[in-house]
Amino acid sequence: MGLRENVEQVRTRLEKAAARFGHKPQDVTLVAVTKTVEADVIREAIALGLTDIGENRVQEMSRKREAYAGARLHMIGQLQSNKVRQLPPEVVLVQSVDRLSLLNEMERIGARDGRDFLALIEIAIAGEAQKGGCAVEALPELLEAVEEMQHVRVNGLMCVAPAASDPEDVRPYFRKMRSLFDKTAAIGYNKTQMNVLSMGMTHDFEVALEEGSNMVRIGTALFGSRNIGGGDNGTVG
């Protein structure tokens, strides 16, 4: 199938799965993961209505920057503190914030450059050392630090579920994330608005949506399998 057919199929699956939780299609954001996808295909994807684009590396964002015209760009890979200053202005959401030092650098660059950052806190919901994300227990410290910042706001949480041949095996992790999301929202931080729960990729997005995700990061189901190295915790969605 071509890209148009893939998009239609993914949107149909997305709408059906989201409805099982009670979300409407407009409640869910589909982020098209374009790691290793070249500029002409990205432009085609945007023309087909995939206007939220996720990239894993700052260098790749910079190389393909012109291709993102008309789209909202998401940083979904692990972000090194020394790369914060290189994030293109088109980045509307940094989904992979997982440590205080990174928040502090975003605040420093924001103050220096007159720039504001919107972020998600990535949670290592399964405690996998090889993946990014902070421990559940570390979340309050990060959110309390954001309360004192002027150029960083947190808009929700993100996770990457463990790899599993059966998506049902990761349902408990998505359910745990939803519970954490709801509990954090109830605390009522002034500078943290829990609007986004980003969880689910090609192999497990329907289960994630059934458990309350309102943002999914999908690459393979849209663009096909790609021979790649690491990046978004070793995945491309």
Defining key terms:
8-stranded parallel sheet, alpha/beta, single chain, 237 residues, 19% strand
Summarize the structure.
By secondary structure, the chain is α/β, with parallel strands linked by helices. Helices cover 35% and strands 19% of the residues. It has 8 helices and 8 strands.
Question: Can you walk through the features of this model?
Answer:
With 237 residues, the chain is of the alpha/beta class. The chain is built from 8 helices and 8 strands. The chain has helices spanning 3-21, 39-47, 58-63, 100-113, 139-146, 171-187, 205-210, 220-223; strands spanning 29-33, 52-55, 72-75, 91-97, 117-122, 152-158, 192-198, 215-218. An 8-stranded parallel beta sheet has the order 7-6-5-4-3-2-1-8. The model is unreliable at 228-234 (pLDDT under 50).
- Main sheet overview: 8 strands, parallel
Bin the strand percentage.
15-25%
Given helix and strand content, the structural type is alpha/beta
Distance between the termini: 18 Å
Instruction: Report the order of strands and helices.
Output: HEHEHEEHEHEHEHEH
Order of strands across the widest beta sheet?
Answer: 7-6-5-4-3-2-1-8
Find the count of extended strands (DSSP E, 2+ residues): 8
Uncertain segments? 228-234
The shape, in one word, is: globular
| Helix content class | 25-40%
Radius of gyration: 17 Å
**Mean pLDDT, all residues:** 94
Number of helices: 8
